[in-house]
Amino acid sequence: MTAYLITNVSVLGAAPTNLLIRDGVVAETGVGLTAAGAVVVDGTGLVALPGLVDLHTHLREPGREDAETVETGSRAAALGGYTAVCAMANTSPVADTAGVVEQVWRLGREAGLVDVQPIGAVTVGLAGERLAELGAMADSAARVRIFSDDGHCVADPRLMRRALEYVKAFDGVVAQHAEEPRLTEGAQMHEGEISTRLGLTGWPAVAEEAIIARDVLLAEHVGSRLHICHVSTAGSVGVLRQAKARGVQVTAEVTPHHLLLTDEKAVTYDPVYKVNPPLRTAADVAALRTALAEGVVDIVATDHAPHAVEDKECEWAYARPGMLGLETALSITLDVLGPQWDLIAERMSRTPARIAGLTEHGHDPAPGAPANLTLVDPAARRVIEPTELASRSCNTPYARMTLPGRIVATFLRGEATVLDGKAVK
Length: 425
What we know:
Number of helices: 12
Strand content: 15-25%
Mean pLDDT: 97
CATH architecture of the largest domain: Alpha-Beta Barrel
CATH class of the largest domain: Alpha Beta
Structural class: alpha/beta
CATH superfamily of the largest domain: Metal-dependent hydrolases
CATH topology of the largest domain: TIM Barrel
Distance between the termini: 16 Å
Number of domains: 2
Radius of gyration: 21 Å
Shape: globular
């Protein structure tokens, strides 16, 4: 195993030091530290963070390898500073059995770029009718701990209660896509002034807020862990704030695009801005930013959703919802929060690792810690070119935008997956 000596690097914004990575861990730290035979990485001007962890990634494999594969998505993740991603269950076939989640897990291990932790479906085929094999997936080699029908809401309250009760046996968590389907039928964008002006069917904020309110009550009732995917409204923030004040075991995520973009983007009818839940108003964006800083919203998760060209370069009404996110998430978060490195580490590494039970991840670079870390150049600015992204798809809403920060290196268990901003393999 290669040893690396990272020189003059700032750990979470502290004074520059040296880091020696050997045998999969941070072996030593200190000013003036040397190591014969180690590969030297110049960390001057760079910030070292714990490797990022994404709780919401769509890798599309099996079934839609034309849009993404575990390998291409893993490469995009490593280039974005991630060392672990949780792969959503809406594949084809759906990841609702031990066999499918183990397939995804093994493909991640073969790629060797990030740890790929599968998320299992809550219901068979994401149909919302009967529970999937939660226990079998939890006991599989993949050791699934998060279950979600993302893309579909578990709308039946009795089924949601049963799922919350079931996962308690192995300290699992149900991650809900909060959308009351009877309120969003035919919806194309956020319901508001702009949807009315454009003549597009609206997706009302209350469709999200009502499900979150229901589910925090269910989680409180059964004493189970609940996670809310891609929170997008100010009203949802209010529900979460009240639930947390009561001690409900609820966590929540916000996506980079919901922290930056608004429903004004829909006036172009460019399907790259079509996403579920939809882009909301400037007031919602402001509320989400405040909630993220305060910890009412616990983490940033990408909802990386690659799509083939034919699924995005078409009329708005027929386009599939979703955006790329892995290679730009840290830049957006840095733009929103500023260089608050400890807070960024908390929202993008420590807390998501804790929610997912990924015990090797989310550790600050320190002696004895697993060497899962990323080096960031905070002074760099880069123009996003879709064709230069590692993802197999190009549906980024940040095309030709100039964003702050650049990932210079990523290390997974002491092995470099990215060096000088380029994938090692």
